[in-house]
TrEMBL record:
Keywords: ATP-binding, Kinase, Leucine-rich repeat, NAD, Nucleotide-binding, Plant defense, Repeat, Serine/threonine-protein kinase, Transferase. This is TMV resistance protein N-like. The keyword Cell membrane does not apply. The keyword Metal-binding does not apply. One of its GO terms (biological process) is defense response. GO terms for molecular function: ADP binding; ATP binding; protein serine/threonine kinase activity. Residues 70-235 form the TIR domain. Residues 685-982 form the Protein kinase domain. It comes from Punica granatum. InterPro entries: AAA+_ATPase, Apaf_helical, Disease_R_plants, Kinase-like_dom_sf, NB-ARC, P-loop_NTPase, Prot_kinase_dom, Ser/Thr_kinase_AS.
Length: 992
C-alpha cells in the first residue's frame, strides 16, 4: 500500500487499523495477521539489516550463506577406519599450521544416522573436503554426510572438493569396482531403501565430476601440501559482511542468479540498476559471497566511479589483477598497459568480476574489454544507475526496486528497537516514518538509527519535519541524522565525505587524531548511526551520504571555492592555488593528480590559509620555505607525490620540530633505523664488513638484531665542519625505491637519517655482483650459457618494469655489471638508483614545468640534466645531444650483453696495451655472422642449439647498441627475444 504525501497521517492510520493488532482477525486482514504472527515468532537477531523469518521459512535459503560468516573454514568428511591415523592426521596438522579452522568428527560411527551436530557443522563450513578411501562407500554415515554436503553445495554455494585416495574417480563415475559392490550390499540390507541407495549412487557420481585431487601414484605429503595451498587461497579471498539480517533481498538475489545462469560455459555480463540507496551493492556483495569460490579467480571493485576519479582507472586495473592473480607485486603504470595485462592474464581464466558503481562506458572497456578479455564460464556483474551503459554493453539488466511497506517496516523496527515490532506508543509513528523512506534501505536504516532511543516527542518532531519536505525528503532524512551529531563528529563526517571515503581506517584516525577530533569515539558514533561502515579496516560511506556531505561543504560558499572549509575537486583546488585565493575558511585540501603530469606549486600560495590543518597531494611539486605554512597544520601527506627534498634545505629544522616527518615514511613500508642499530649490525662499520664502494658511499655487510642479513650503504660526509651531506643520491634512491616493487629489483628495507649520518639498508645479496663473477673471480657459477642468459633475462625484466610499469617510468642511467646483484639462487636484481631519473609515459624526461602561481620560481623549459654515467656504457646520443631516454638504458644493456658473451669489460686493454671499446670490436664480427672469435674462451665448447641462441643474443646486443636511439628495441622486445634464446638453450640442455 502506497501512502501519498497529501494524506500521510490519514492513510497511515488506515493501514495501521487494517492490521487489527488487538482484535480478532477478519477475512480481509487474515493474510496480514499470519504475516505478523511470523514476525512475532521469529527469533531475536542482532542489529543491522534484519531479515524477517516466518515459522515456515526455517529451511536454509539459497542465499543465506551470502549474509553470514561461516562457523568453520573446512569440514573434513572421511572414513575414519581407513585414514584417521595417517592421511587425515597429516592433513589436519597442516591445516592447523595455517590457522584454518577445521571441523573433524573425532568419533567412530557405526550404522547411525548423522547427528544434528554434524549437520550444523556441514552447514556452517565454507569448504567441504571429502576424502574417498577404500571403504568410504561401506559406511552409511559417510554416504549420508556426502548427501548433506552436496545439498549445501547446491543450496548455499558451499565449495566442495573431493580427494581420491587409492580409489579412482572413474570408479565412482561409472559405478563399478569396489564401490559398486558396497552399494549392492546396502541394497541387500532390508534397513536401507532402494531410493536411498539410488541417491547415494547419484551423489558419488556427482562428486566424481567435481574438481579435486587424485593421489594416483603420487606422494601423500605433496597431496596434503596442494590441498592446503588451494584451501588457503580460497579462504583468503575477500568476503563481505553484507548485513547480519537482510530484509526483502532474497528475491532480488534469486532473480539475478537466474540471469547469471552459472551452469552455462559462456561469458555473461549482468547489470543491477536502480536509484542510489536501493541496495544494488548489497545484492552484488551477497552474490559475490555466494558464488566466488566457484571460479578460478575473483575481484570485487567497489565504487568504481569515485575510485577512478581519485586514483585513475589504472589503480582499478591493478586491484583487479592483484585480486585474480593473488600477486601483490602487480603494478600498472598506465591504462593502456593495464588493458594489455588484463587481457593477457585473464583470457584463459574462468573469473567472477564485480564492478560496483559504474558510471562511464570506458570503465567497462578498460577493466573487462566489455567481457572480451575473460575466459569461458566467466561472469561479470555491474551495478549502475545508468541503464544506457548496460544496454550499450549488451548486459542483461535487473532493475531493482525499493522495499515494499512490510519489509520497510520490518527493517525500520529492527534498526530503531532491535526487535521485530514497535512498542505500543510507537506503532503508528513507525508506520508513517517507515513509509516516508520510499522503500530505500539506506534511508530506513539511517532514520531508524537516528530515532533509536529517542523520546516520542522527538519522533513526532521528525515526522513533522519530514512531511514538510516532500520533494527533498531523501536529503532531509540524511540531514536530520547529520544535524544530530556533536561538532567534532560533524567534522569527522565531512572529512570522510571529502577526503577519506575508502581509505585505511588507521590512516584516517591518525590524521583526525592530530586535529583533536577524537576519531575512535567519532567512528563509533557514525557506525551506530549507520552513517559509515568499516570493512576490511577501510572506512566506507554510501554515495548518497557522501554527496550530502560534499553539498554541505559546497553551500558554505557556492560561487567561490576559496570560501569553503574543504577542497577536494580537482578544478576547485587548482583554481584556488593558481589564483592564490585561499582564505581563512580553508581547513583541508586533497589533490589527486591522476595523470602523472608535473605541476609546480609555490608553498607561498598557502600563506593566506591560516586555519589549514590537512594537505594531501599526489604528483605535485611543492617548493618554498615552510614559514608560509599554517600554524594549525597537523598533517602534510606527500607520500604519494613529490618528496620532501622539494622544500629545500632550509625546511629541515622545521620538519623535525613540527611534524617529526613531513612525509610519514612508515606508510612507504620502510623501517627507520637508528645509528646504534647499524653500528651493532656492522661491528661499528668495521673494515672486515666492508663489501665495496658506491657513488653514495661505502657498502657494508650487516646482521641485524633479529639475525637478518642486510647490505648497508653508508653515505659520505662532504664537509664535516659545515655539516654538508651528500644527500642527493640518498634522497633520489629513497624516492625511486618507494615507488618500485619487482622481483628483479633489489628491495630497500629501511634507512638512517640521524644528525650527519645517512644510510640505506637493503636485502643482502649473498652472491655479490655480476661484475664480481664475470670480471674479478671468473666464477665457475657462470660456466653455462643457460646461466648467463638467465641472468640477462632477469636484468632485462627489471628494466622492462622500470620503463613500462613503474609509476612514473624510470631511466636507470647506470646499467652495468656492478649494478646487477645476484641472490642466493643466482637470480639477478638491479641495484643502485642514485643516478636514476623519473620520466613520462613516452620514455622521455618530464615535460616543461607548469607554474602554479606567483612567484614563478622554475623556468618554463625542458629539464636539462648533467651528463653522468659510466664510460663504456653511456648512450652516444646522450653524450652528444644530452638526449636521455629509456633507450639510453637499452644501450647500456646491450654493452652488458656483449660482456656476458665475451667475458671482456666494456673498456679493456688489448695485447698492445691500448684501450678498446668492446662495442667497437664486437659489432663487426656480429655483422659478419662470425661470433666464435669473441666468445668467452673460458666457456666450454658450444653446441649447435646453444650457438643459435648465442648468435641471436649477439644480434640483439648489436641492435641495442644502434647509434640511432629510435632504432633500438624497447626493453619489452629485449625480454621477448632473450626469453626465446633461453628456451632454446634449455631445450638443448634437456636433450642430453
Amino acid at each position: 500500500m502506497v501512502i501519498t504525501d497529501k494524506n500521510t497521517t490519514r492513510q497511515c492510520l488506515q493501514y495501521f487499523l487494517l492490521w487489527n493488532f488487538n482484535g480478532t482477525p477478519t477475512k480481509a486482514n487474515r493474510r496480514a495477521q499470519l504475516h505478523l504472527h511470523g514476525m512475532l515468532t521469529s527469533e531475536p537477531e542482532a542489529s543491522g539489516f534484519p531479515v524477517m523469518v516466518t515459522t515456515h521459512q526455517r529451511a536454509t535459503s539459497p542465499s543465506s550463506s551470502a549474509f553470514q560468516r561461516s562457523k568453520y573454514d573446512v569440514f573434513l568428511s572421511f572414513r575414519g577406519e581407513d585414514v584417521r591415523n595417517n592421511f587425515i592426521s597429516h592433513l589436519r596438522y597442516a591445516l592447523a599450521q595455517k590457522e584454518i579452522n577445521t571441523f573433524i568428527d573425532d568419533h567412530l560411527r557405526r550404522g547411525e544416522e548423522i547427528s544434528s551436530e554434524l549437520v550444523e557443522a556441514i552447514e556452517g563450513s565454507r569448504i567441504a573436503v571429502v576424502v574417498f578411501s577404500w571403504n568410504f562407500a561401506s559406511s552409511t554415515w559417510c554416504l549420508d554426510e556426502l548427501l548433506k554436503i552436496l545439498e549445501c553445495k547446491y543450496s548455499n554455494g558451499q565449495l566442495v572438493r573431493p580427494v581420491f585416495l587409492h580409489v579412482s574417480p572413474s570408479e565412482l563415475r561409472k559405478g563399478n569396482g569396489s564401490y559398486a559392490g558396497m552399494l549392492r550390499r546396502h541394497e541387500e540390507n532390508t534397513g536401507v531403501s532402494a531410493e536411498k541407495v539410488h541417491r547415494w549412487r547419484a551423489a558419488l557420481h556427482q562428486a566424481a565430476n567435481l574438481s579435486g585431487w587424485h593421489l594416483g601414484s603420487g606422494v601423500e605429503s605433496d597431496l596434503v601440501r596442494n590441498i592446503v595451498e588451494e584451501v588457503s587461497s580460497k579462504l583468503t579471498r575477500q568476503y563481505f559482511i553484507v548485513a547480519s539480517n537482510p530484509v526483502g533481498l532474497e528475491s532480488h538475489i534469486q532473480a539475478v542468479s537466474e540471469l547469471l545462469y552459472t551452469e552455462v560455459n559462456d561469458v555473461r555480463m549482468v547489470g543491477i540498476s536502480g536509484i542510489s540507496g536501493v541496495g544494488k551493492t548489497t545484492i552484488a556483495k551477497a552474490l559475490y559471497n555466494l558464488i566466488a569460490d566457484q571460479y578460478e579467480g575473483s575481484s570485487f571493485l567497489e565504487n568504481v566511479s569515485e575510485t577512478s576519479k581519485q586514483h585513475g582507472l589504472m589503480k582499478l586495473q591493478e586491484a583487479l589483477l592483484v585480486d585474480v592473480l593473488g600477486d601483490a607485486n602487480v603494478k600498472v603504470g598506465y591504462i593502456k598497459t593495464g588493458r594489455h595485462l588484463v587481457e593477457d592474464k585473464l583470457r584463459n581464466k574462468r573469473v567472477l568480476l564485480v564492478l560496483d558503481g559504474v558510471d562511464q562506458m570506458d570503465q567497462l572497456e578498460d577493466l573487462t574489454g566489455i567481457g572480451q578479455w575473460v575466459g569461458s564460464g566467466s561472469r561479470i556483474i555491474v551495478t549502475t544507475k545508468d541503464t544506457e551503459i548496460l544496454r550499450a554493453s549488451g548486459a542483461e539488466n535487473y532493475n531493482m526496486k525499493g522495499l515494499n511497506h512490510d519489509d520497510a517496516l520490518t527493517l525500520f523496527c529492527r534498526t530503531a528497537f532491535q526487535q521485530v515490532f514497535p512498542p505500543g506508543d510507537y506503532k503508528l509513528l513507525s508506520f508513517c516514518l517507515a513509509n516516508l523512506t520510499e522503500g530505500l534501505p539506506l534511508l530506513v536504516v539511517v532514520l531508524g538509527s537516528f530515532l533509536r532511543g529517542k523520546t516520542i516527542q522527538a519522533w513526532n518532531q521528525a515526522l513533522r519535519r519530514l512531511k514538510g519536505f516532500p520533494h527533498t525528503r531523501i536529503d532531509e532524512i540524511l540531514r536530520i541524522s547529520f544535524e544530530d551529531l556533536e561538532p567534532h563528529e560533524k567534522a569527522i563526517f565531512l572529512d570522510i565525505a571529502c577526503f577519506f571515503n575508502g581509505e585505511n581506517k588507521d590512516y584516517a584516525a591518525k590524521l583526525l587524531d592530530r586535529c583533536n577530533f577524537y576519531p575512535d569515539s567519532g567512528f563509533k558514533v557514525l557506525v551506530e548511526k549507520s552513517l559509515i561502515t568499516v570493512e576490511s579496516n577501510k572506512i566506507w560511506m554510501h554515495a548518497l551520504l557522501q554527496d550530502m556531505g560534499r553539498e554541505i561543504v559546497h553551500q558554505e560558499s557556492p560561487g567561490n571555492p576559496s570560501g569553503r572549509s574543504r577542497l577536494w575537486n580537482h578544478e576547485d583546488v587548482l583554481q584556488v592555488l593558481h589564483g592564490n585565493s585561499g582564505t581563512d575558511a580553508v581547513e583541508g585540501i586533497r589533490l589527486d593528480m591522476v595523470d602523472p603530469e608535473e605541476i609546480f606549486m609555490s608553498i607561498k600560495v598557502l600563506r593566506k590559509m591560516r586555519r589549514l590543518r590537512l594537505i594531501m597531494v599526489r604528483n605535485l611539486h611543492v617548493s618554498g620555505c615552510p614559514e608560509y605554512l599554517s600554524s594549525e597544520l597537523s598533517w602534510l601527506d606527500l607520500s604519494h607525490g613529490m618528496q620532501d627534498n622539494d622544500f629545500g634545505e632550509e625546511a629541515a629544522p622545521f620538519k623535525k620540530a613540527r611534524f617529526g616527518r613531513l612525509i610519514e615514511k612508515e606508510y612507504m613500508g620502510f623501517r627507520e633505523f637508528t645509528l646504534a642499530e647499524l653500528h651493532r649490525a656492522t661491528k661499528n662499520f668495521s673494515e672486515q664488513n666492508l663489501l665495496g664502494m658506491s657513488g653514495f658511499g661505502s657498502v657494508y655487510h650487516g646482521i641485524l638484531d633479529d639475525g637478518q642479513e642486510v647490505a648497508i650503504k653508508r653515505g659520505f660526509v662532504v664537509n664535516v665542519r659545515r655539516g654538508e651531506l651528500n644527500d642527493h643520491e640518498f634522497k633520489t634512491e629513497v624516492n625511486i625505491l618507494c615507488r618500485v616493487n619487482h622481483k628483479n629489483i633489489v628491495r630497500l628495507l629501511g634507512f638512517l637519517e640521524e644528525r650527519n649520518e645517512r644510510a640505506l639498508v637493503y636485502e643482502f645479496m649473498s652472491n655479490y655482483s655480476l661484475n664480481h663473477h664475470l670480471h674479478i673471480h671468473r666464477s665457475s657459477l657462470l660456466r653455462t650459457w643457460t646461466t648467463r642468459l638467465q641472468l640477462a633475462l632477469d636484468a632485462a625484466r627489471g628494466l622492462e618494469y622500470l620503463h613500462f610499469y613503474a609509476v612514473p617510468p624510470l631511466i636507470h642511467r647506470d646499467v652495468k655489471p656492478t649494478n646487477i646483484l645476484l641472490d642466493v639462487n643466482m637470480r639477478a636484481k638491479i641495484a643502485d638508483f642514485g643516478l636514476s631519473i623519473l620520466t613520462s609515459e613516452d620514455g622521455k624526461l618530464n615535460s616543461p614545468v607548469q607554474d602554479l602561481g606567483p612567484p614563478a620560481v622554475r623556468p618554463k623549459h625542458s629539464c636539462v640534466t648533467p651528463i653522468i654515467g659510466t664510460v663504456g656504457y653511456m648512450d652516444p646520443q646522450y653524450i652528444m645531444n644530452n638526449q636521455l631516454t629509456t633507450k639510453s638504458d637499452v644501450y647500456g644493456f646491450g654493452v652488458l650483453l656483449f660482456e656476458l658473451l665475451s667475458g671482456r669489460k666494456a673498456v679493456y686493454r688489448d695485447k698492445q696495451g691500448s684501450h678498446c671499446r668492446l662495442v667497437d670490436v664486437v659489432i663487426p664480427w656480429v655483422t659478419q655472422g662470425d661470433i666464435g672469435e669473441f666468445l668467452d674462451p673460458n666457456m666450454p665448447s658450444i653446441r649447435p642449439l646453444e650457438m643459435e641462441a648465442v648468435l641471436d643474443v649477439a644480434k640483439l646486443a648489436a641492435d641495442c647498441n644502434n647509434f640511432e636511439a629510435q632504432e633500438r628495441p624497447s626493453m619489452a622486445e629485449v625480454v621477448l627475444r632473450l626469453n626465446s634464446a633461453l628456451e632454446r638453450c634449455l631445450k638443448d640442455a634437456q636433450s642430453d
